[in-house]
Structures are given as structure tokens and as C-alpha cells.
User: Fold these one by one.
Assistant:
Number 1:
Amino acid sequence: MNKINLAAYWASSCGGCDIAIVELGEHLLELAQVADIVFWPAATDFKYADVEAMADGFIDLTLFNGAIRTEEDVHIAHLLRQKSKVLIAFGSCAMEGCIPGLSNLVGPERALRRAALETPSTDNPEGVLPQGHFEIPEGALTLPRLCGTLRTLEQVVPVDFKIPGCPPNHDQVWNALQAYLAGHLPKNGLLGVDPRTVCDQCPRVREGKIRVKQFQRPHEVIADPERCFLEQGLICAGPATHAGCGALCVKANMPCRGCYGPPDGVTDQGAALLDAIVASFDGQSDAEVRQIVGTIIDPIGTFYRFSLANSLLQKARALASQGDDPCASQAATEGETL
Amino acid sequence: MIRSDQMDRRFIEEVMAEPGGEHLLTCWSCGTCAATCLVRRFNPAFNPRLILHKAGLGLREAVLSSAEIWACSACDTCYPRCPQGIHISQVMRAIRNVAIRAGYEAPGPTAQVDANRCSGCAVCTRICPYEAIERASQNIDGQERVIARVDRNLCQACGLCVAACPSGAMSLEALNDAELLTRMAAGGWLEHAGFLQGASTTPRLLAFVCQWSVRAEDEWQRIQALNDEHLRVVILPCSGRVEPAHILLALSKGVDGVLVMGCHEGACHYQRGTYLGRGKVALLNEMMAQMGIVRERVRFVESSALERRIFEERLALMREAILALRPALEIPAR
């Protein structure tokens, strides 16, 4: 049997998705029998030039993780699309923007200042910001410029399949690879998932009629490990999140954060979760309803924690503020300066 | 004409033996319930006084075979007004229970569960104002799973569960998402840029109107006639049926503002629907503010069946508010 050519890439990501591939463990040996790794920056030493030298479609399968945040990400997304027969948006960042996508709330300049100057753990007394171009005796150093808006892979190039998760559960990564190798590919384009939502796999007891007058955040209470989080006044994204993780977080007494994305047939996860959360409001007057809404701190960070970059909410704003994204245009190189 | 040979004492006993049916015979037939009934305003054939009167006479067939016994939506507007303190919706429920045992069925559509998509998350059991949905273990394709089950007798077809279900497992004929989307977008209405993009001199507004917040026929006719390229009116069974995703879709397509009109506090026909509609809009407003979208572009407004021309007034206010937005957004005219 001919081996397939396999590539993996990290755009703007935390590295967790690459760990998820490493976590295949001994399955990696099985994978090595059927696939040659031709590009994987996290683990191998191939260069961009090696990819550029490949014939179009040379790579059979690319697992692309990370969001599209810099000029470099845009460039590699186009390059890998050109060189790959099948391109998979691997993990929440590539699929829907994930946590980095929340930076779209404030834009790249504000996000950069926050990261480089303001976080409690930053030690930067001279207030130095990363420079796009910097001369040192050995030559010039450059950094890619940031796009105005962080995008999902599919917002930049066509994608064949998606594997959700932050990061994808390694068992599901293996399931997805096996499905690909066996040619059992889903019509809806989603690999590495189970049917229905996280609630389907959640072992907690749902009484079913309990409504709440306020919501708290996980650090404010010690949750009952047996009962449904929503019925304890903790926002859990389980009802509006695709099953696939095996309800990992809820089994560790932490409400579902929503990383597996929206259920089948749902386009906007945040809106679906909003509907599900309001359903449990115990408010008998306008004032009470507003009071309950007031107890939900950072609604976007809660409802769109992983999906803001791919949301209707962001689209609605993009329209109101008239495209401010130089990377979105053909001239991707005209990115904003750092 | 009522014939004595049609009167069945056992029927009266049967109704009274049902929980909630105890007070059947305390009814004086004064008609206060009918005078205040919200259903009656749009379904004149429904008269709670007559139903109680006939049931009190033991007219089994006449009562059980009538379509009207299923029409009460348990809004309980009549309950505090009844001089005898009869909880009439409970008596109706008792009558319906007897009807179901006798093999009669509710004539209208009720919510349906798609077993393959339902995760048993309990969102619908929490939202239902009528406790018409329970979770129960069922064997689906050889697998034992706990999923939602709708009691046809209790379901009032308000559609709140259809809006709430995050898996798209709940459906209700004409009230499904796809159907509402069709009504929103019919004729390519959504495919036009709006005022805030500088493509129209008049704001383009989408309105979701609760069917109970406007009752008089002339009001409806006038509101429907307002539909044009700058306004699309979509009628909902309840403001609680509104979908935040539909609102966001409209905004993302260039609609300038979305108005959700529902009933006053305490006047919701489906008990808590108006609070759900308010909750959704309030929470969405918070997210819009966080996102830098002017929150005034989505509003909840209230109206009641007794008020006139509220819709036009609120619409005009929203238009004004949006016309005032333009400088703030610094969008150059094209």
C-alpha cells in the first residue's frame, strides 16, 4: 500500500492541538506505517521552502491548527491549500477562532498592548512593544504583521473537513484519521465527533424544572458534583455544544466551556446557548429578568468563548464598522504595522 | 335545546374527581370569565362559561367532542376575576383529561421531539410554562436514552421550547426556525444593504410581533399593510419565541434595527413568554454593547390588545434613533 503524505501546521494557536496529535501515543506508530510526515513544524524540521517546492496536491492530508491572525498565517493557509488534496481545520482555533478570536472584541493594537504591557504577569519596565522590523549586528529580524481581524481557516481558504475541540480529544483524532483512511467521510464535514450534544454524555442529574434567579461563576461556588450545573446557577455550555469530548470538563466538576462548537444544524453557538440559558431564568417581572441578566458577567466571553470569530454577532459588527481588515483583501501583505 | 336524557351525572363526577375539577359545580354562569378571556378575542367560538355550564349539566358528548375545550391556553386572566374563585384553566384541564381517556385528541399541532437529535438536556422542560414536557427513558434504535417527551394534552403550541432547544430537536409545524426564516427573507427582503451602510435613505427595520399583543382586526390589517422594502413584520405566537440567531442574522445582512413587540408584564398569554422575550433581548443587548454594536438597534417594546397604534409609535421611535446613529458610526454616504 502506498503511504499517504501527511502534514500538520500551527498558525496562531497555543500548541495544544499539536500535543493532541502527540497524544495519539502508540497509534503514532500505526500512523507511521501508513503515512509519511512531510511537514510538521512542531515536531519536524521541514522549512516553508520545502513546502513551496512541493507539487500542487502533493500532500494528501493536512491537519491545520490555529487561527489566522498574521500575514504569515494567511500566506501559509493559501500555500497549504494549494499543496493539499484534503485540508482539515483541526481544533477550535482553525475551525471557529477559539479564545484568540475574543481579541476581535478590541482589535489587534489593543490586544498587543494588553499582552505586552498590561497583564499582571508582564515585566516590561521600558514598555517595549514587539517590532515588525529590527536591526541587529547579524542582520535584520522581522515579525509578521497582525491582521485587523482574526479569522477562521475557512474564512481564508476552502476547507474540506473540520475537527472541533480545544484541543480535539486524542481518541477522536484517531477516530477521524481512521475515518479518513477508510474513506468514511461525513457529509456535513465534521470529523471526530459523537452524535448530539455534551448533555447526551453528561452523567449529572437533571431535575428538569429548576429555574434560577442568578448566575455565578465557577470560582465563586463549590459546585455539587452530581447535579446539573445550570440548575445550580452555573452557566454550562453543554446544551449548545457538540458531543465528542466525552463530557470531560463536567466530569472534573467544571461546567462545559463549549469548545466542541455548535451542534449539527446550528450556525451560531452563542445565540443557541443564549436561548438555552434564558430558558432557565426564574424572573416574574421585567426588573427581575434584568437583574438575572446583570448577574451574567462577560456574556460574550461566556457564550462565544470559542466561536466569536465565526459568529453572526461578529458579522453584524463587521457590517456596521465597514471592513477594517487589510488581511481580508487580496493584498494580504499590506497588513497593519505592529 | 338541552334534553334531560343527554345529561349524565357520572360525567360531572368524573370531571370533579380529576385534580382541578373539584370546583365545577360552584360556577354561577355569570360570564365574567368570558368577558375577560384573551383567547375569546381571537377565537370567538371559545366561551369558558358555556363549557363549564354544559359540563355542569353533564352533557358528556357535547363537551368532549367540542374543539373549544382544547382552546384554553391557561393564561389565567380569568382566575383572579372569577367571583367564585374557580381556577377555570384547571377545570378545563380536568375536562381534557376525561376527553383523552375517552379517546379524544387535541385538534391542533403540538410540539414534536426528534428522538435522534434530542440529548435530554432539560432546557425544554425548564422553559415550558405548562409542564407539558418531561424527560423519560426511551429505547431508540436499541439504545436506552433519556429524552424529552411532550404531553399532547398539556402542550399549548406556544413554541417557546422550539426557540429554546439548542439542538434543533423540537419542532412545531408553522413555528419552526426554517419557516420563520422564510417569512423573514421572503422576496429577498434580507438581501439589501441598509441605512447604516449608506445604501438606503430610510432605515430598514424587522419587527417580530407577538400575536397576542395586537388583537383588533383593523390593527392587524393596518400593521400588515406597513410591510414594504423598509419594514418586514413577522408574526410570532409569543415574543418568547423570538430567536436571537434570527435577530443577528438580520443585523449581519444589513438590517438596521430589530423590534420585538410582546405583551406587558403579567399579561403574557403563555404566562412567562414575555419575560423570556425580554430576557433574550436584554442579554443580546449586553453582548452587542460589548461588541461595539449600538444596543438601540435591537429593542423589546410592549403593547397590549387594548392599545391602539402602539406599533407605529414604537417603529417611528426606532427609526428616529437609527437616523441619529449615522454620525456616531462615521459611515460615509455612498
Note: The radius of gyration of chain B is 23 Å.
Number 2:
Amino acid sequence: MFMTIAEPALLFVDRAIEDEAPVELPDRPAGGLAVTARGLGKSFDSKTVLSDLDLHIPPGQFVAVVGRSGCGKSTLLRLIVGLDTPSVGSLHLEGEARPGTEARIMFQEPRLLPWARVLANVEVGLGQALDARRRRTQALAALREVGLDDRAREWPAVLSGGQKQRVALARALVSRPRLLALDEPLGALDALTRIEMQGLIETVWRDQGFTAILVTHDVTEAVALADRVIVIDAGRIALDLEVDVPRPRRHGDPRLAALEGRILDHLFSEGGPAPRAARAA
Amino acid sequence: MSAPALRLPRNAAGWILPVALVVVWEAASRLGQLPATILPAPSDVLAAAWRLLKTGELSTNIGVSFLRAVSGFIVGGGIGLALGLANGLSSLSEKITDTTLQMVRNVPHLALIPLVILWFGIEEEAKLFLVALGVFFPIYINTLLGVRSVDPQLVEMGRAYGMDRWTLFRRVILPAALPSLFVGLRYGLGIMWLTLIVAETISASSGIGYMAMQAREFLQVDVVVLSIVIYALLGKLADSVARLLERLSLQWHPAFQAA
């Protein structure tokens, strides 16, 4: 009775690694999902977190949502992936062929199952839809995309923070989602690892064309990655800004810096303290 | 430990002290320092074991005690596990049963022996009931604690990735509760032997405890000591099995990875 939970030994991993057959993907239309919110609001008990929010995100767009902590940006993300339900208004993911399976979220913490090997953790992203062998092949392909296929048999405990987050990214991507919600996934990483992860996220987004919604408190990260930056303040959209800088973008590009300045000014002009000091930081 | 002469297998180090004690004990008996009526020599105890083994008495009694221990453990542990899981997963179940269980828990189960003898006499049911009751609480409490302390972030991840309730239980909640379950298991095994010894000593017509009480009547101190040694060995065996199971199923746990 106590033994049933032990992970099955990954006897076939080596064979699967050699198996270079093209990965069969679940049949679903390519491209991202569009997100439309109308009059969206969310309250917890008597506290209103989001109110009367209108938003349209076209398919395949990379949107960054920034705002001060407690502004409701994470709540918006949780509503989009269905972890919470709206109190008022409506929220639609347009073009979903199989509702509930095409939007994935990546959290600030990796949230890997410590008792499952890396490969089994990635397989969590596939659910029970496929047979075991195909799950394994696809999970390995996803691990290869994040450069960790050689760690498939390890326990999560032996990986570094950045590697764990890459496994979490592979888990989010393995089902080929058409919308990827990122809830400050790089917030806990050191600066160099963070830049590396930003590059990785941008690469897979350009390869796969899903809609990406990145919640972050790092405005530099927002303008470096996103097509569009949305500033949320007190539960509403305070600023909606196009980032019209061609990719690949270079760190320290003056156009990005100018946009970053505008966003920070906006964040701190809304009743916040000392904008100049904050920009220098 | 770095000196080559002292390099023993890691398990052997733990046996140095008990072996030395037995040697000293034997020597003290041989030299007449330790009267056989107080504590017979280890060799006498071994001789008693051989004698009882030949008549078949020893293996019968060990078998009887072992069966009682295991069946009591399965009944009590099974109920404890089931209730612990139910109360950890459902607040309704907990509201209904937890207060009652906490009240019963505060009654020392060995205090029930007179009542149990009135109910069941000295039949097998009495021992089964006492062992099951004793084992129930450590398993129940540690299961409940284990299920409660599951990281809610992992549960949320499971829900976000579309796990149904059964998958969530099997892949997230149960493995997370497992370290705590093993604490309950090992603690329950200790209570199991303790309860059985007391129950067999007070009221039984077979088993190791009965064998010890019979030997006391006839002043066979060697058999009394033998009974105690057998209890110790059985207890150690049960603990070793639990630790082996723990090591096998908690391989992922950093605390067990060095092994």
C-alpha cells in the first residue's frame, strides 16, 4: 500500500533518446489563441482586485503586464488560464479547439514534483492523453528544446534554480499550448540566468507562435521581450504601449530604454513616490 | 575512522558495542560474578533457545506472536490510514470524527485491558483489539499531518495542468504525505510490540509473552531472558523493514539520497 507511488523506473529513456523520429504532436491548429476580456472584474470577499477591464490580445502576440505588487496583474493571469473565475464581465479564449488544454501557466516557483524524475515532471504537462511511449518521446523533445535532455533521469532536487525553471518551461510547452501565461517566472533567478531564460522564452515563442502573456515587475524585461506592454494600476489598464522595436533586440538599445523610461514615469506618476530615484535604480 | 585498521563496513560499527556487552556478560557469568538465578549467561540463553527450538515450542510461540502483531497492525493501521486520508482531504469528515478521535486518543489504550478481558476473555480478539487500537493513533495522526502539510502550490500546479482528483491524489498528495506516513509507520510498529508484550504477559495461553510468564512460574530465568531477546530482535526486524521501505520509496528525498 505504501509502495504504489514510487515512480516507474525509466527503463526506456536511453532508447527514447536515440529515437530521432519526428515528434507527433496532438492534432490542433497552429498559432496562438486570442484573448478578449469585456468588463472583466474580480473581487475577493469585499476587496476588488480588478474592475471593468477591457482587453483584446490578438493571436501570437507577446504581451507583458507590469504594475506594482498588488495591482491585480497576477489575478488577471489566473483568470486567463482559468485558475480563478471572473466575478463580473466575460473572458474568452478565441479559437480553442479543446478548451482547458491549450493554455498553460508557468509560475514564479518551478513547482516541480520532487518525487518525480525530470522527465516524469515534463510528462505532467501532457496529462493522460497519450500512451506512455509517446508521452516519453514528447517530453524528451521538450527537454531538448530547453537544453536539458541529458538530465532526464535526475531528481529535481539536484538541479539549479535556473535548470528547474527550464524544466518547468518544458512542462508548460510539451503539450504545444497556444497560450502561455508566465507569472513572473524569472523573478527568483540571478541576473545572468534571467537573461539566458529571456532568450530561451523568446526563441520558443518565435518558433511556436503561441500567444504569450508575461506578468513581471521588471520593466526592462517587459520591453526587451514583449510586442506590447500593459501597465495595470489599481485594477485597471493605465497604459497600453506598443513596443515597436525589431527583433532580435539588443540589450541597452536606446529605443528600449526610452520606452522603459516612459513606463516607469507612468507607474510612478500615478500617486507613487520619487520617480527619478526609481529610474536611477 | 580514517586509520586503515579501523575501516569496517558501516553497519559493523553499530554492532561493536552490543557484542562487547555480550562478551562481558558471558565472562561475568563464567567467573561467578553473576548468579544464574539473576541473569543466566548468554550461552545458557542460547542453550535454552536450542532446547525450545527442538521441542517446537519456540517457533510455535514466535509464529503466534508474529501473527497477532501483524494482524493487529494491519487492522489498526489500515483504519488509521483510511481515516487520516479522509480527514486530511475532506473537512466534513474531519468535523464529524476528529473531536471524538482526539478524546479517545487521550485514554491510554493499555488502561482498557481490564475492560478488554471482560469483553473478550483472553482470546485472540483481545490482543487484536489492543494492538489495533494502539497502532491506530500514530498512523492516523501522522497520515493526517502528512496530507495537511502538502504544498498548496503543488496542488494548484496539478489543477492548472488538468489533473483530475484521483491523479492529483496519486501524483501529488500521497507522495507528499509519504515521509510523514513513514514516521507514523515506525512509531506504530513500536507501539505494536509494546502492546503485544503487555497483552501476552497479562492474559494469554500462547505466544512469547505467555512463554515468559510460564518460565517465571518454573524459575527458568534463561527462558525469560530469551523471550526478552526475541522481542528485541522482532522489534529490530520490524524497524529494519520499515526503514528499507522508506529508503526505497523516498529515493527522491534529499535526506535519503546519500544512501
Note: Chain B has one domain: 42-250.
